[in-house]
Write a structure and sequence with these properties.
Blueprint lengths: L1 H6 L7 E7 L1 E2 L11 E2 L6 H18 L7 E9 L7 H14 L1 E12 L8 H8 L3 E7 L3 H6 L6 H13 L5 E7 L6 H12 L5 E6 L7 H4 L8 H17 L3 E4 L2 E3 L6 H7 L3 E5 L4 E6 L2 E7 L3 H7 L6 E6 L5 H9 L6 E2 L1 H7 L7 H9 L9 E2 L3 H5 L1 H6 L8
Parallel strand pairs: 1-4, 1-11, 2-3, 4-5, 5-6, 6-7, 7-8
Antiparallel strand pairs: 8-10, 9-10, 12-13, 13-14, 15-16
């Protein structure tokens, strides 16, 4: 019965494309992304060809994807701004030939303020990029050095100015808090420095010590304790609200109309193709929700791109795993999602999770609203506890 329900999952109409560019000038000690120190000369042309071959192979596997409108493209990394505008233009041109790329698609490029050159943002704009995400992290040079960043505050401000001068009206600033040696005043000063640049969007997230990172192996001294980190979060949330930024997702704040469409597609359990080294995708094909990912190492990926050997894994999700997978994304949104989206995305009736919904509401973790699935303030604070209620019994 569960297998039959899972097979009934209906494909979302739109599609997103994630493009992974895996190289950085230097690996930051807190970073657990699939990023690699750049060689002396980046193999730009070879990697662009590999991306094209990777996309072609995915579409040969599922040709029906070529008919679905692509509403967003996201160049993530790594440090995508190490790639010249001409390479970004070539990638987008190939995607436009092979996919139904919407004329108003949001196209985001992540950039490091330490790897941007004068005039390059104009080139990205001409290539088709219409949203920039700057990885600033802090405006305190002392803290930036502790984080292993290659830029300083002056470069961050200059990069933000260059983005505006190039005509981008959609810009995100990434900012971290609870940094080693940071106090509450410092966290607020960082945020005020970011707001002074008038970005449309701010990603504001706590430094965490992720497994298999340099910071996890050797934690930096002076990390704020949990109480101070919570005080920083609450004070910064209030400052952002006062400035008109809506808190629409766990770590995302936006002015009206500036929410990241690509990330909203993730949180609403939409479909996305992932191309490039280590890229992940989530697709609904032939009525089945699947997750597919590519080989992580850039050289191994480039050598295998265009064939099945470049696929690191391809998993069809069992019906029992779909509720957790769906809610892991949907409950990050402050407004949650319509209750009907659960069936539309998973093919399962809402009744399949009714007992877990009842338990979550009884504990005050989920709003008592039959038309929406939305975490309460308590549920957002203890999101892991809320999500555990929707795990299969064998995984709790």
């Amino acid at each position: 019965m569960q297998a039959m329900l899972a097979s009934a999952a209906r494909a979302p109409e739109s599609l997103a494309l994630y493009v992974h560019l895996p190289w950085c000038v230097r690996k930051c000690p807190y970073c657990d992304f699939n990023s690699h120190r750049a060689p002396g000369a980046l193999p730009v042309a070879d990697y662009v060809r590999a991306l094209a071959a990777d996309l072609d192979h995915d579409l040969a596997t599922w040709p029906e994807l070529a008919l679905r409108p692509v509403t967003s493209v996201f160049f993530g990394g790594g440090t995508p701004s190490l790639f010249p505008p001409s390479a970004i233009a070539d990638i987008l041109a190939h995607a436009g030939r092979r996919l139904a790329l919407s004329g108003d698609a949001e196209i985001t490029l992540e950039a490091n303020p330490g790897t941007t050159e004068h005039g390059r943002f104009e080139g990205y704009r001409q290539a088709g990029v219409n949203r920039i995400s700057l990885g600033v992290q802090s405006f305190d040079d002392r803290l930036l050095r502790r984080l292993g960043r290659i830029h300083g505050a002056a470069e961050a401000r200059a990069a933000a100015g260059s983005v505006a001068a190039a005509g981008f009206d959609r810009c995100n600033l990434d900012l971290m808090y609870a940094l080693p040696g940071q106090d509450l005043a410092g966290a607020l000063a960082d945020l005020d420095a970011a707001l002074a640049l008038a970005p449309g969007h701010v990603s504001h997230y706590q430094l965490t010590l992720e497994p298999n990172t340099a910071f996890a192996a050797q934690p930096p001294p002076g990390l704020p304790d949990d109480d101070l980190a919570a005080a920083m979060m609450e004070a910064c949330q209030a400052r952002l609200a006062d400035a008109g930024y809506g808190h629409y997702e766990t770590s995302a704040y936006a002015l009206p109309g500036q929410a990241c469409r690509h990330n909203l597609n993730y949180w609403r359990y939409g479909d996305f193709l992932g191309i490039g080294a280590g890229a992940h995708g989530k697709l609904t094909v032939a009525g089945q929700v699947r997750r597919r990912w590519k080989l992580r190492h850039p050289r191994a990926f480039m050598d295998a791109a265009g064939g099945a050997a470049a696929v690191g894994g391809d998993q069809a999700l069992a019906a029992a795993d779909l509720p957790f997978d769906f809610l892991l994304n949907a409950l990050r949104l402050a407004e949650g999602v319509p209750a009907g989206l659960f069936e539309a995305r998973t093919g399962l009736p809402l009744a399949a999770i009714a007992p877990a919904l009842d338990r979550a509401r009884q504990r005050g973790l989920l709003a008592d609203d039959p038309d929406r699935l939305v975490a309460t303030g308590l549920g957002q604070r203890f999101l892991n506890d809320l999500l555990t209620l929707f795990l299969p019994a064998s995984r709790r």
